[in-house]
Specification:
Chain B: It comes from Infirmifilum lucidum. Chain B: Keywords: Antiviral defense. Chain B: Pfam families: DevR. The complex is a heterodimer of chains A (124) and B (332). Chain A is mainly alpha-helical and 124 residues long. Chain A contains six helices and two strands, in the order ααααββαα. Chain A is globular, with a radius of gyration of 15 Å. Chain B has one domain (6-15, 54-155, 201-329). Chain B is built from nine helices and 13 strands. In chain B, the strands form three sheets. In chain B, strands 1, 2, 3, 8, 9, 10, 11, 12 and 13 form a nine-stranded mixed beta sheet that branches. A two-stranded antiparallel ribbon of chain B has the order 4-5. A two-stranded antiparallel sheet of chain B has the order 6-7. The chains are: A mainly alpha (124), B alpha+beta (332). Chain A binds chain B through residues 33, 43, 45-46, 49, 53, 56-57, 60-61, 63-64, and chain B through 24, 26-29, 31, 34, 36, 47-49. The structure holds zinc ion. The site of zinc ion has 6 residues of chain B, from helix 2 and helix 5.
Chain lengths: 124, 332
């Protein structure tokens, strides 16, 4: 069981990068609740509900944040500290993620782990 | 046989359209608390998410009622608990009023005997000055730290199992008006719209109250006050009040739930005994059978009360019968 979840599949997480970015945004603003629910989920239903809540909250923040002249959106999470907002994940990315989670709930845990790590390269 | 000192109550209540427990407000959206729930469907186990009310929310309502009842009986309640801010004696600042500003401290090169005596002094000082912290416990995080465990326990309120899938959550649209004439701020909309998630379900929860621990030290087991019976009476009356008025939950100002208690059982025992959780069908019969078994096994006293039986028509009848029995037994 353990062997199956290691090696090859970890590199396959790139297709969920936009979801990792949204979760990374919550980690950066110290709102760990969605990350913890997704990372600790024991079944796919839990991931679905947590992701829905995370995207709902992210939508609220995204839509309420003003864009600069380049069209980039920033969120001020503390006095004087702002962070660039990632793009909303596409419908296809979310669907692919949920499909993967229904096959192996461990995917959710690994996505949550990625979100808490330092990104390997500068993100767009 | 001894005295009955342990009360356990199981309640089922119907709440139509309520916002009893809100968590996480994001933007203009306030979310109702929901929890994962395992149910059986077609012989298979399945996880569903249902609206829920945390035990903390019910405990808050109970302690508000306790502060009121204690004051009405002329018992001491500290200034924070009096206004429903249950910070308890969490640090030196909040414990100060119980000790006229001088909270006992360790001298530095502390010996074990000194620790035991200072801890005892702090606990008894707080218990004497505040019935809410006596019954509801506290955690003093000073030097030395002192913990008093709550004498009451309360479960989450969860939709009853057999109809859990009929529980619903729905966002309701609300509008808040801004001033239109005169000094309207630039950019402020005339109406702010926001959504509040409402829940509807038949909920069940359990409440236990251990009268034996009221006014008694957690450390030495000795009585700390001489008005123990009066304090127990306040604790019992507070439960009556909170169950009768459904005085718990968030947003009661505009979301006072339609509905009320549809079933209730209560037991009084000498030692801890918890009623079968009301989320299960047949919880009343199960409680009665289990209680009979416990009485036979330990040779202890035990009383059983059920709404709808023995002339107890309403929740108030059940709770009055409980209080009458406690008086008859000399507990309160
Ligand atoms: Zn107090």
């Amino acid at each position: 069981m353990v062997a199956k979840t290691m090696g090859t599949e970890v590199s396959g997480l790139e297709e969920f990068e936009s979801i990792v970015r949204v979760l990374r945004f919550f980690a950066a603003t110290r709102n760990y609740s969605f990350l913890d629910r997704i990372g600790n989920a024991l079944n796919p239903e839990t991931v679905e509900v947590a992701l829905r809540d995370a995207l709902r909250t992210f939508s609220s923040i995204y839509d309420a944040s003003p864009a600069d002249e380049k069209g980039l959106k920033y969120y001020e999470y503390e006095e004087g500290r702002r962070i660039r907002l990632p793009a909303k994940p596409s419908e296809g990315e979310v669907a692919a993620f949920l499909r993967a989670v229904w096959q192996d709930v461990g995917v959710a845990r690994r996505v949550a782990i990625m979100a808490m790590s330092v990104p390997a390269r500068e993100e767009r | 046989m001894g005295v009955v000192t342990f009360l356990s109550v199981g309640v089922r209540f119907e709440a139509n359209v309520e916002a009893l427990n809100m968590v996480e407000v994001s933007g203009n959206y306030a979310r109702h608390r929901r929890v994962p729930y395992v149910i059986t469907e077609g012989g298979r186990l399945k996880v569903v998410y249902v609206p829920a009310v945390s035990g903390e929310s019910i405990a808050h309502g109970y302690q508000v009622a306790l502060a009121e009842e204690a004051k009405a009986l002329g018992l001491p309640v500290c200034s924070y608990c009096s206004i429903g801010e249950f910070l308890k004696s969490m640090d030196e600042e909040h414990a100060a009023e119980k000790f006229d500003g001088k909270v006992p401290k360790l001298s530095g090169r502390s010996k074990k005997e000194e620790l035991v005596s200072v801890v005892g002094e702090i606990e008894s000082g707080i218990v004497r000055k505040c019935v809410v912290e006596d019954v509801g416990g506290f955690l003093y995080a000073g030097n030395p730290p002192v913990k008093r465990t709550s004498r009451f326990m309360v479960s989450y309120a969860l939709p009853i199992k057999s109809v859990a899938t009929y529980a619903t959550l729905e966002p309701q649209l609300h509008a808040r008006h801004a001033r239109t004439a005169g000094e309207r701020r630039e950019g402020a909309a005339e109406q702010m719209i926001y959504y509040v998630e409402t829940g509807t379900a038949v909920y069940g929860f359990t409440f236990n109250l251990d009268f034996a621990g009221v006014g008694v030290s957690s450390y030495s087991g000795r009585a700390l006050v001489d008005d123990v019976k009066k304090r127990r009476l306040a604790a019992a009356r507070a439960l009556y009040r909170v169950l009768s008025s459904q005085g718990f939950g968030a947003k009661l100002s505009r979301f006072l739930p339609g509905g009320g208690a549809v079933a209730m059982v209560a037991t009084l025992t000498e030692r801890p005994f918890t009623v079968t959780s009301p989320i299960y069908d047949g919880f009343a019969e199960s409680t009665r059978e289990r209680l009979e078994r416990v009485k036979a096994t330990f040779g202890e006293k035990g009383y059983y009360f059920e709404m709808g039986k023995d002339g107890l028509k309403t929740p108030e009848d059940v709770l009055s019968a409980v209080i009458e029995t406690l008086k008859k037994e000399g507990t309160i």
